[in-house]
Design brief:
The structure is a homodimer of 397-residue chains. Chain A is α/β, with parallel strands linked by helices and 397 residues long. In chain A, 38% of the residues lie in helices and 15% in strands. Chain A has helices at 6-10, 20-28, 47-55, 70-82, 97-109, 125-133, 153-159, 182-194, 252-264, 270-279, 285-307, 331-340, 376-392, and strands at 32-35, 92-95, 115-120, 136-141, 164-170, 198-202, 227-232, 245-249, 321-325, 347-350, 352-353, 367-371. In chain A, the strands form 3 sheets. Chain A has a 7-stranded mixed β-sheet, with helices on both faces. In chain A, strand 5 (164-170), helix 8 and strand 6 (198-202) form a beta-alpha-beta unit. Chain A is globular and about 55 Å long.
């Protein structure tokens, strides 16, 4: 049998999805699994999105513009304007999910062998896309003890080398739930200004900030042409399967580069752009209600977690994830054990092992990421399972 | 302003789409443009596809499985079975368009610096994806004089070096319309067997063969685990905007690699997989009727083209493209001139310059690709425009 490429062998499996075979086996045994491992919300996709798709007058399901339909991009500029972000339609590339925006940004800013600084823990697929793009992640470690706040300036500066080209943040953060303050963003602004770096800012969870208002990287005036905003409708509107995202930048050569990548893959999905355009007409109350729902879950989750002996979970301020430290030796073994060998009242829980969110070997071994994407009752059952599991798990940390 | 990556600067612009700004200007002047530059069919998407999407009972537009919905993959195996191709659901990765299948295949089989042999002219975006993947295309030139038949074995063998890992074909061919005979495929089979190469076979236009039946690379028994089939519903069902394709292989490590790439980008669009599954229930007559329509256009197009003094167009046997040699010095200049400086009865025509389909510098300078994606009457008007244009074009070749 011919060998596949080395880069494929080195490609990391998604830590969020690699336990799926064990979950499938547990489900076959009739065990009810509470899926807290993946950011797939249980909140309904707003009807106007689906209705717009259903009612679209379409005879030929044709390619859209490679950069996305102009009318959708025009409408997007108004959405951003309301947030205090001024962009033009030609500064937007509609992407196939936020995933593609991440990938285009890495390809556009970095060459193979170049480095990107990322506060860790970070969204695990940054590792996959970096591997695909042949770029190196230089992690800058944040600490669970202080709620995963931005590491100090010196930690970033020390990590910068001659091949460092960019900083990548996720704000609000997946997996930590940290929301970067204006002050923290200004630190990043200084770093990017002083060291000639792009700032890639993944703001998929912008609307889900529970304590403070969100401040976008595109509002950092002194580096306005160094910022690349990565966006998606997936979480905002509970529309993960739509695969509609965006890459936004004032840097025209960068947009021209992203457009070439976009042209190679022809177009983002056509129908979902119609749905995404309809989403922009949703009343502001939609986010008020959704935010309230997630906030309630957040409070419940974090309270219950911290009541479990040996568990520590700082209060996340945004997104719908929490990182928790568990009293186990190896959280990945534990998560697999939860699916393979445990059930409580016919139920178990699926979590994402923390190590997959770190680039530094050995980090996060006792941590798990928990997505609070289930309604409160199911969430309580899930955390009860976790509590019972920790009582009997043999390999304590 | 910070510099973008070198690879972005080197990324080729799509030759099919780079004339778009000139077309936009012509359209603004009120000129009617016959778009023969892009493979966007005018044939209606079959109603059952759109109806299935419209009627799907969906409350949450959730991620699908990263490899695509299992029920769709199961149904696909029956489609392939009818074509004499035996595959299992776990040998299929549903991709976001055929584009992503091409990209995943290159990433899975080749490392940066590795080489892929491709008969030229070839689908222009192979160049873009190769650039993104950091792999080198070694073109093996086919000739318009013999209808772009497969170059002989020696031409391939001479191009093979220590870093050659794969051959990539498009069958039926875009842009030439050539359909590889069983004999030609057996030559490729020998080459791949003797030189340890993967055979990537893009069969997007499988159903559009007008003279002979199609023979799939996956039917080459002696290299069954070296073949990677690249597929898409875009052309087959006039559903380019659906962005549903597939990568298929019996090579399990390769499928495992493709799945890791698929997991990084989470999932292909959810709704369109429902439409694509519905498409598989279309009666066989659908393709009979569609093929008949394209065949009529093909005959008309090629007859009219060869009636124009100095124009030569071999009869394509499949897909819906023809490559024609024009009596001009530089077809790209001519195509731009058609949009910028010419109109006949308020109309002009947009063509894809041939050079963009070649990797060898200087090749295809007098050629254009013509997509016969317009109904016969519009096609006749378009070719009349072309004829009139060639009568007055100053820069004859």
């Amino acid at each position: 049998m011919l060998s596949i490429s080395q880069r494929s062998l080195q490609m990391p499996a998604s830590p969020i999805r690699k336990l799926v075979p064990f979950a499938e086996k547990a489900a076959q045994k009739g065990i009810h699994i509470h899926y807290l491992n993946i950011g797939q919300p249980d909140i309904r996709t707003p009807a106007p999105i689906l209705d717009a798709i259903r009612q679209a007058k379409i005879d030929i399901l044709a390619y859209s513009h490679s950069a996305g339909n102009l009318d959708y991009r025009e409408k997007l500029t108004k959405y951003y304007h309301k947030l205090g972000i001024e962009v033009e339609p030609h500064e937007i590339i509609v992407t196939t999910g936020g995933s593609e925006a991440i990938w285009f940004a890495l390809m556009a800013c970095l060459d193979p062998g170049d480095e990107v600084l990322i506060p860790e823990p970070f969204y695990a697929n940054y590792l996959g896309f970096s591997q695909m793009a042949g770029v190196q992640i230089k992690p800058v470690t944040s600490a669970i003890e202080n709620g995963f706040a931005l590491p100090n300036k010196q930690a970033f500066v020390q990590a910068i080398g001659p091949r460092t080209k960019a900083v990548l943040i996720c704000n609000p953060n997946n997996p930590t739930g940290h929301v970067y303050s204006r002050k923290e963003l200004q630190v990043l602004e200084e770093i990017c200004l002083e060291h000639q770096l792009f700032l890639l800012s993944d703001e998929a969870y912008r609307e889900f900030c529970y304590e403070d208002t969100h401040y976008s990287a595109l509002q950092l005036e002194s580096i306005r042409d160094r910022v690349v905003l990565l966006d998606t409708i997936s979480k905002r509107y509970s529309a993960c399967g739509a695969r509609i995202g965006a890459l936004i930048s004032h840097h025209q050569p960068l947009i021209a580069a992203a457009l070439k990548y976009a042209q190679a893959r022809l177009s983002p999905p056509t129908l979902e752009q119609i749905g995404a355009a309809a989403a922009l007409d949703l009343p502001a109350e939609y986010f008020v209600a959704t935010r309230k729902e997630y906030d309630r879950r957040r409070q419940t989750l974090v309270r219950l977690l911290n009541e479990i002996p040996g568990v520590f979970c700082p209060m996340p301020k945004g997104a719908f994830y929490a990182m928790a430290k568990l009293p186990v030796k190896d959280a990945e073994d534990f998560c697999q054990w939860l699916l393979e060998s445990f059930s409580y009242k016919g139920q178990t829980v699926m979590l994402a092992p923390g190590a997959g969110f770190y680039a530094t070997p050995g980090k996060g071994k006792q941590e798990v990421r928990i997505a609070y994407v289930l309604e409160e009752k199911a969430l309580i059952s899930a955390i009860t399972c976790l509590k019972k599991a920790l009582e009997v798990y043999p390999d304590k940390g």
